Automatic annotation (TrEMBL):
<dbReference type="GO" id="GO:0005886">
    <property type="term" value="C:plasma membrane"/>
</dbReference>
<feature type="domain" description="ABC3 transporter permease C-terminal">
    <location>
        <begin position="169"/>
        <end position="286"/>
    </location>
</feature>
<comment type="similarity">
    <text>Belongs to the ABC-4 integral membrane protein family. FtsX subfamily.</text>
</comment>
<keyword id="KW-0132">Cell division</keyword>
<keyword id="KW-0472">Membrane</keyword>
<feature type="transmembrane region" description="Helical">
    <location>
        <begin position="260"/>
        <end position="283"/>
    </location>
</feature>
<keyword id="KW-1003">Cell membrane</keyword>
<dbReference type="InterPro" id="IPR003838">
    <property type="entry name" value="ABC3_permease_C"/>
</dbReference>
<feature type="domain" description="FtsX extracellular">
    <location>
        <begin position="54"/>
        <end position="138"/>
    </location>
</feature>
<dbReference type="GO" id="GO:0051301">
    <property type="term" value="P:cell division"/>
</dbReference>
<keyword id="KW-1133">Transmembrane helix</keyword>
<keyword id="KW-0131">Cell cycle</keyword>
<feature type="transmembrane region" description="Helical">
    <location>
        <begin position="219"/>
        <end position="240"/>
    </location>
</feature>
<feature type="transmembrane region" description="Helical">
    <location>
        <begin position="166"/>
        <end position="188"/>
    </location>
</feature>
<feature type="transmembrane region" description="Helical">
    <location>
        <begin position="20"/>
        <end position="38"/>
    </location>
</feature>
<dbReference type="InterPro" id="IPR004513">
    <property type="entry name" value="FtsX"/>
</dbReference>
<dbReference type="InterPro" id="IPR040690">
    <property type="entry name" value="FtsX_ECD"/>
</dbReference>
Length: 290
């Protein structure tokens, strides 16, 4: 308790310096949390499309059952294929009527005979779909047309990779800024209290004893910054949750799992603790050598 009150006096003696360090930490963790949530959302959208039929192979009319089974088995044996589902003409008609149930004019003249049978193919790895599309495009006696969501999948993968690369650069930059600003603030405070520290050492105080208030100050910066940065981002995400999930529907962009949010809060709290303690330790070791 004594060291906490001592640390609190350190913060109050230099309020503007303390505020600068706290704001820097908060902004850094705000950016980190934002990237975590948006990356999670994009991955959720990408995973949603990975589990849906991403290639629809429309088949020629008049194919016999052995030919269909052979084609289905050929697709299923390709590595990373998740599922190959055969949609008959009758099933295609059911899906068509369900899709256009609010517009009876579009369903009156449509029969199963004019709709093609198809294979709906989904994969664990979206990159394998390109190979499937190329392979079956050449089978002109079997395949009538292939519908491939290539542009959408590639766009999502591109956005996810770009976000990750941008996040690494941005978080690294602001992490360094937070480190140097916090180091400067704590180093300046140590310098201003050099006489007080020397007097304490002459009176028998241990090296750890005189460093401890500055170590605790660094921890306060890290824990406060990570908590406020996380809660600020979470508030914004929750506020726009309905709009984001509607925009990316049927995929869920913002998770409904409270464990996900709690886990990341604890992770960022730990990061804040380690960053604050590590920064103050390095600075105090540099400035307090006796």
């Amino acid at each position: 308790m004594h060291h906490l009150s001592h640390t609190w006096r350190h913060l109050r003696r230099s309020p503007f310096q303390s505020i600068i360090a706290l704001l820097t930490m908060t902004v850094s963790f705000f950016i980190l949390t934002s990237f975590v949530f948006f990356n999670s959302g994009l991955n959720s959208v990408l995973n949603h499309f990975n589990t849906k039929p991403e290639i629809t192979i429309f088949l020629k009319d008049g194919l016999d059952k052995p030919t269909l089974e052979a084609a289905q088995n050929e697709i299923a044996t390709i590595p990373d294929i998740r599922e190959v589902r055969y949609v008959s003409k009758e099933k295609a008609l059911e899906l068509y009527k369900e899709l256009n149930k609010n517009n009876p004019l579009l369903t009156e003249m449509v029969t199963a005979s004019i709709l093609p049978a198809s294979f709906e193919v989904s994969a664990y790895n979206p990159k394998v779909l390109e190979a499937v599309a190329q392979k079956f495009t050449a089978k002109t006696t079997l395949v009538d047309e292939i519908v491939y969501q290539k542009d959408l999948i590639e766009s999502l993968m591109g956005w996810t990779n770009m976000l990750k690369n941008f996040a690494i650069v941005t978080i690294s930059f602001f992490g360094l800024v937070a480190f140097f600003v916090t180091s400067a603030v704590i180093g300046l405070k140590i310098t201003n209290r050099k006489d007080e520290i020397n007097t304490s050492r002459l009176l028998g105080a241990s090296l750890f004893y005189v460093k401890k208030p500055f170590l605790m100050e660094g921890i306060i910066y890290g824990v406060f910054g990570s908590t406020v940065g996380y809660l600020a981002t979470l508030s914004i995400i929750i506020y726009f949750k309905a709009k984001l999930n509607t925009f990316f529907s049927p995929a869920i962009f913002v998770s409904n799992d409270p464990v996900f949010f709690l886990t990341w809060f604890l992770v960022e709290l730990s990061i804040g603790f380690v960053v604050g303690l590590g920064t103050s330790f390095v600075v105090s070791k540099r400035y307090i050598k006796w």
